[in-house]
Write a structure and sequence with these properties.
homodimer, mainly beta, Jelly Rolls, three-stranded antiparallel beta sheet, globular
């Protein structure tokens, strides 16, 4: 006799979980209930003091985009890199800088950055004592970043 | 002789403008430099006191998503509606409420709302004197909202 719990017949699997509407509660210290603060990417020498929280999209989601919240500690910086996919960044916490090509722009609350395809870019927090926190929206399907070198 | 300025030959047109990396500066009163505050949608009886600003995506953009900032005045509300596309909402200003199906949730800074496909939903600002302001990210390609009726 077959064990129904180990059946692989088509149609015998439980339906895939459908996402449900919900509110992710904001918490003190710029965290969200149930959302882990992960390492930005595999440890490397080209970034420092960056954490990532995925607020929407990612594994199992149906949206064509992902919404992530990044935090860069004072004196920290993201990788200097470029790629074909675009970034839309909205600053929520602290102050910092973004490098776009050869230009460096100061950033504070609400400033919104569009990073066009193939622009060499880097976010950093050279000022103050507060983390630089920002939302970053990207296409769910996107190419891998390519490291860039400073001129 | 042909007038080259009126030529329609393939290859004679100027290349389409490519979007450039840029910073949209945040301004006092939750506005962004160069971004118009538009009416939420064509005037109707099912919403009140709502304005929309498109921060990224929309006409000519390559991203698979759009980022909009909405503001709802005190006593205002968005349409009660449903649709197949999903919303991801992040509150930036003031306080308010969201209705998701039969449940009503209070909202304040940082709270993040995921509206799943076909959930009847409505945002409102029944409290206070400050506008309720939030980012709303959607797929660039999406279905039209369908008005819903209160039970």
């Amino acid at each position: 006799m077959n064990d129904p719990t180990s059946s692989c017949e088509l149609g015998s699997r439980p339906p895939a979980a459908r996402p449900e509407s919900r509110v992710l509660r904001f918490q003190p210290g710029f965290r969200w209930e149930g959302v882990p603060a992960e390492e930005y990417k595999a440890q490397g020498a080209d970034w420092c003091g960056v954490r990532r929280m995925t607020l929407a999209g990612g594994a199992g989601a149906a949206t064509a985009f992902e919404v992530r919240y990044f935090e860069i500690e004072p004196a920290g910086f993201s990788s200097l890199e470029h790629h074909a996919h675009e970034h839309v960044v909205i600053v929520l916490r602290g102050r910092g800088q973004v490098r776009l090509g050869d230009a460096v722009h100061e950033l504070s609350f609400g400033d919104t950055v569009y990073v066009a395809p193939h622009t060499v870019h880097q976010f950093s927090n050279p000022h103050g004592e507060e983390p630089l926190g920002f939302l970053c929206v990207v296409d769910a399907v996107r190419d891998r970043p390519v490291p860039a070198t400073s001129p």
